[in-house]
Automatic annotation (TrEMBL):
It holds the Pfam family LAL_C2. This is Carboxylase. Signal peptide: none annotated. Residues 121-320 form the ATP-grasp domain. Gene3D superfamilies: ATP-grasp fold, B domain. GO terms for molecular function: ATP binding; ligase activity; metal ion binding. It comes from the Bacteria. PROSITE patterns: ATP_GRASP. PANTHER family: ATP-GRASP ENZYME FSQD, FUMIPYRROLE BIOSYNTHESIS PROTEIN C. SMART domains: GARS_A.
Amino acid sequence: MTAPFIAFVESNMTGTGMQALRLAHDRGLRIAFLTSDLRKYDSDPDAARTIRSLADEIAECDTNSPEAMEKALRDLPGLVGGLMTVMEYFVPVAAATARRMGLPGLDPAAAAIARDKGTARTVCQDHGVPVPRFRFVGSLEVLDEVLDEVGLPCVVKPVDESASIGVTLCRTRQQAYDRLAELIDSRANSKGQQRVPGGLVEECLFGHEVSVETFTHGGRTVVLGVTDKLLGPVPHFVELGHTFPSGLPEERSGAAARVALAALEAVGFDFGPAHVEVKLTARGPVLIEINARAGGDFVPDLVRHATGVGLLEQTIIAATGGTPQLQPSRQRGAAIRFLAGRAGVVAEVPDTTVLDRFPTVVASRVKAVVGQRTTWPANSHERLGYVLTSAETAYQAAVDADAAAAQLAVSYEPEP
């Protein structure tokens, strides 16, 4: 009997995207890859090669349209047994298409709410979930009024981006005005999707940030653990590392998990993995945002190394009608540290064979190349690589990742 298709809607070019394709292939599923333009993946030769080699069918269609995707899927030469995406921008359209085709998936209404940071905030606030003071602002004329309400410093950000794109700390009214003006002038996000002009102006929260990794299936949400996040310096909020599980006392990590669960319930989240970000402030845990998919930044790898639960594999199982296995089989720790560059031209890249001296390193990549002009990263896409460790404890994994990352410094040409 011919295996059914599992359809993937677009993909990240590294991390979860390519891993999910390989896992589906290893499970013997036929892969259909839906994209608006396959050529855009050619910017990463490894990703392009992976897609072309693993996908049994590649369908180019409007991946912002459930109708177009349904037609493309029904035109495939075989049964479609599941549909999913690991890419934040396409969660709502994937959910809507799955519903149209009678496939397992997240409630489309919940997907749409979670995808819009402003709407998610409003819904969660209405359900008593602690959130920052915030307003969606579509006109500069009301900004002074909003700043009087929200206060300074504030954070200005788009409601529909990911990977810290466009998230900016503003210490003055002029900075907030300038940043919001850019968002008002923007008619599309970084993936070309149409957006309502404007942005979220919110209270700047102070404290340690964590993410809560969950999986929902059959009316039950399982908390797989809490991840400690290492953020880079303001005015940007680029993530430079993660450690799983969190080293915080159970009282604090448990409080963060309860906020995450309340937020998921508020938006009606009912299927699959979620990655919920929470800030631990002096007034208690406060919701940052809900990501209605597995975390990026190799967080699923951290969870797998630490607990034995493969988030991506279980997502594929659930998406194709199976029952995910979410019981941990081990208790270890894992960590990742990302490489940040600076303004300048790369003169020399590190020799990664030095990592052979670190037995807990399980994965790494240096993306910088000689002659490349870099800057301090303003979003996750501008980082220069990573090193990932797995150890008996999260603390050991974290200190090993720090030590290994320190050996991967990029050298720069002398400044003129």
